[in-house]
Amino acid sequence: MPNIRKKQHLGLIGMLLIAVSFAGLQLTAVTGRASPDTKNYLSYALSLSGESREEAGRRAIAYSCASGQHASLSPVPWTNRKTVGESEEQCVRRLEDSVAYWSRHGNTSGMTASFANQRFMAIFEARPGYPLFLVPFVAAFGITWGLWLAGLVIALAGSVCVLLTLRAAGASRRAGLAGQALYLALPTGTVAMNPLSDGLSLAMGTAVALGCVLLLRDRPRTGGASGTGAGPAAWTAAAGPRTGAALVTGGLVLMFFVRYSQALLLAAALAGVLLIRAGWLRRKRRRFTPVLRAAGLCAGLTVCVYAGAHLLGWPMGEDSAQDLLTHHYQRPDLPNPWPEFFVQEGVFWSAWLRRQAASPVLPVLLALSAWALLRRRSVVLPIALAAGAAGLLNQAGHPNLGQLYGFRLIVFLWLLPVLAIPLLLDRPSREPSPAQPEEVGGGQRDGTVGVVHQVREGA
């Protein structure tokens, strides 16, 4: 028992050290992260706090323009918010003139300020979750520190969910900590820190991944050592399928209010991958019921997300295509946008592939992920594949060359290496599933009960 508690404490210390190190590094850039969409979410949050729409817009403009003066002049368009030669005063004047123009041309209602036409701003009106999340941070710490702290909480929450996901899948403590560190070091951590809805939806996605692992492993709860002590290992050992179902359902429901299009794609990708997995297991005459049950849950949630967005009148797929092709609805709609949209798909992905060839960080990480898929057997791998597919689908829905150097729309693809590569730190497991006990040397091993007699390898 003392050794178990000592290992649990080591896991907690490692998790805290990674979190504190990340927070310290983020102090070097408390501001300068705002994107053009940040002012939309911020004005929404300030309106929810009780400020008038006009005052909320004014304060959002002031923050956005001040942040732009601290932005780095990097070659990445979506992270560079400073227009060369534009002062803070010129930025404020430009945005205030835009608000006045669109207010005169019909945009007089809603929670967000009238930064653009009402049809475009409806996209942000349909994402109330992130502004609502910001309200207590902005109210307690002000705009600059409130947005920074909100991003830090989002990033650390996602990283802890990744750690718990790997531990629940049976990975070692070092693999779990490696997953947490990868999540914070890769673009997943960068996107989580930026004041946009993408980071919060990503954190919800990691919670969904954790829930899927708890569903798929179908490990029964025991009253043994797994329920004692504290730390990630103790929690993941005690959690069962009911907790998993609650995490999947709750995560996707919350993501629906943060960024419903990403919730729809993640739920659909999980349902598809898990259904294929269940069919493969059935063909191999292996136990497939937990996988099929999880696929059914994700499929049902996919239908609910789509129906909910449709009933609420939120912008759907064709609206997104028209937004891209009409420059945010400033030109007349196309009668049939899809032929030109698919032309844009080809242009974007050919440019994206050339970009990956020139800077092959992601291809290398995906190659390592493929190696993990081939060399390891883990319940987390099909979930990682589904998350990656959801990222590709989200980017495919927005083939905008302005996002070529960015990560936020395709960020779920980076969850594949985050969840898969740490598994390479563990030896390939030859033991049976924890739900299927094995007789070992006169004793029993089921993943939670200790080994009575350890048999040497090769004996």
Explain what you see.
The chain is mainly alpha-helical and 459 residues long. The protein is built from 17 helices and two strands. It has helices at residues 2-26, 38-48, 53-68, 88-104, 118-125, 129-168, 173-185, 187-193, 197-217, 232-238, 241-283, 289-311, 317-325, 338-358, 361-375, 380-396, 415-420; strands at residues 438-440, 443-445. A two-stranded antiparallel sheet has the order 1-2. Helix 6 (129-168) packs antiparallel against helix 7 (173-185), helix 6 packs antiparallel against helix 8 (187-193) and helix 9 (197-217) runs antiparallel to helix 12. It is globular, with a radius of gyration of 24 Å. It starts with a helix and ends in a 14-residue tail after the last strand.
Topology, pairings included?
Elements lengths: L1 H25 L11 H11 L4 H16 L19 H17 L13 H8 L3 H40 L4 H13 L1 H7 L3 H21 L14 H7 L2 H43 L5 H23 L5 H9 L12 H21 L2 H15 L4 H17 L18 H6 L17 E3 L2 E3 L14
Antiparallel strand pairs: 1-2
Separation of the first and last Cα atoms: 28 Å
Number of helices: 17
The largest sheet, given as strand count, sense and whether it forms a barrel, is: 2 strands, antiparallel
Order of helices and strands: HHHHHHHHHHHHHHHHHEE
The share of residues in extended strands comes to: under 5%
Please outline what is shown here.
The protein has 459 residues and is an all-alpha fold. Helix content is 65%, strand content 1%.
